[in-house]
Structure formats: C-alpha cells, structure tokens
Amino acid sequence: MRRIKLQLAYDGSSFHGWQVQPGLPTIQGVIEKVVSEIEGAPVDVAASGRTDAGVHAIGQVAAFSIGNPIPAANLRRAMNRLLPPAVRVVSAEEVAADFHPRFDAKAKTYEYRIVREEVCSPFEWPFVHHYPYPLEEERMEHLARVLEGEHDFTVFAAADESDAEGRSKVRTVFSSSVERGGGRLVYRVRGSGFLKHMVRNIVGTLIEAGRGNLEELSALPAKSGPTAPAKGLFLIGVEY
Questions:
Q1: What share of the chain is helix, strand, coil (3-state, %, to 5)?
Q2: CA proximity to 97, closest of 27, 2, 28, 207
Q3: What is the C-alpha to C-alpha distance for residues 172 and 155, in angstroms, rounded to an integer?
Q4: Which of 65, 95, 125 is the endpoint of a domain?
Q5: Structural domain includes residue 132
Q6: What three-state secondary structure class fits 187?
Q7: Which of 40, 61, 175, 223 is the most buried (most CB within 10 A)?
Q8: What is the pLDDT of residue 60?
Q9: pTM higher than 0.85 for the full model?
C-alpha cells in the first residue's frame, strides 16, 4: 500500500464541516467518495484536524493509503476532475507509510478575516465577518499578544465529545496578532494545536475587547466572548 499526502483548499460554505456525517455533505465525505472510486474499494481519509461547518481552508492536509499505482500528479488531476469545484487538491505526494496528518503536525496557522467598512462586497461576504461598528483596534492587538505562550485555553473551548476522556486543554500559541490592511482586520494565529471553536471564540473575545467590554487585558479572560461566525475563518497551513 502507498501512503498519499494531500494539500487541500476548499470553500466550506456549503459543507457541514470536515468530518463525515450521515446524509450531510462534508469535505471528508466527498474526498473519500472520489478516492474510493479511483481505488475501487473503500478508503479512509484522515486530516490534520476537523474544520467546522462553514470554515474554509487554503492549506488543509489529509492522507490515505491506496494500492493503486497511479502517479501522485495524475492522482491530483483525476481527483480534481471528480471533486466539486468548491474542493481542490492543491498537491499530492507519496510519503512514509506511517505518516499521519494530525499526529505528526508540529504547528497550524489560522486566519480570521473581518471587513470593517460600512459596505461589504457581495463577493467577499461568504468569506469574511462583516463588522462595521466602532472598535478600539489597539486593545484588540494588545489582547492578541497576551495569548502567546503556553496556556490552558479551556475558556475558549467549546464542548467536545472527547471531554469525557479528560484530555488536556493546554496549548502553545507561537504567534498571535491583529493587523489592519485597508478595510480589513485580520487575526492570524499560529500554534501547536487548537481546541474546538478556539479561534472563533478568541476572535469573539477580541471583538469584545475592541468594544471596551473587557477591562483586564494583561491575562486570559475569565470567559470568552461570543463565538465569531465560521465563514471568516481559514486554515492557512500545517507544518511538519
């Protein structure tokens, strides 16, 4: 069997997240369907992490094992012919048999995009959070930097089925920044790993800080702000 590593880009707007769900369109579901057709047998596809419904990706990484001898470049072309236009295989390569896109990952980078202008273009709307209301962006930038380092991020984690296993919610954030570019405000975070809804909850908290609703900006808050909409979030890349 050959182990194949994919880099994927997708528009998550019409999908119910990465993970297969009976009767619902998912990224994993369409990838597994196409690869299984090429292989002529069921194929399980693993990813670096499960993106939520409506979340997009530029650099998601997935992997699977097949016996088909098709060259990786031809496999990429074949998959892109069969996949819906909202999902693209950016690259495909053969890797070691024991490669796992989740457990071997060293860092991930996410980006959250906020349009600050009064009018949001309909061509941007599916991929940004439109927030034209007043914000103290310097307060947001300050709090973003506070999140860097190793912390228990329980406050930013949504309930997850794995909670019963008592897994640690300590993660390391290597970099966390808020940058203004034209009419956009972009939150970019790179870390060792992320909890369910963690980045979206961080963004919601940053917005609360920008609204002046958080007084203490020198430490992690006691509770998170509202979860920011999924459509503004992108998985930018995974490092190995």
A1: 25, 30, 40
A2: 2
A3: 15
A4: 95
A5: yes
A6: strand
A7: 61
A8: 98
A9: yes
Separation CA 176–CA 170 (nearest Å): 16
Around 224, how many Cα atoms within 13 Å sit in the side-chain half-sphere?
A: 18
Cα 201–Cα 207–Cα 210 angle in degrees, nearest 5: 145
Q: What are phi and psi of 153, to 5 degrees?
A: -95, 25
Distance CA 172, CA 127 (A): 27
Ranges of beta strands (E only) in 120-232 are 129-130, 149-152, 170-181, 184-191
Give 40-95 pLDDT, tens digit per residue. Answer: 999 999 999 999 999 999 999 999 999 999 999 999 999 999 999 999 999 999 99
Domain holding 64: CATH number? 3.30.70.580
Compute the C-alpha angle 236/160/218, nearest 5°.
65
Query: pLDDT at position 220, please?
Result: 87
- Among residues 44, 52, 152, 163, which one is catalytic? 52
Q: Which of 95, 115, 141 is the last residue of a domain?
A: 95
Q: For residue range 83-127, list pLDDT tens digits in order.
A: 999 999 999 999 999 999 999 999 999 999 999 999 999 999 999
44 is annotated as an active-site residue? no
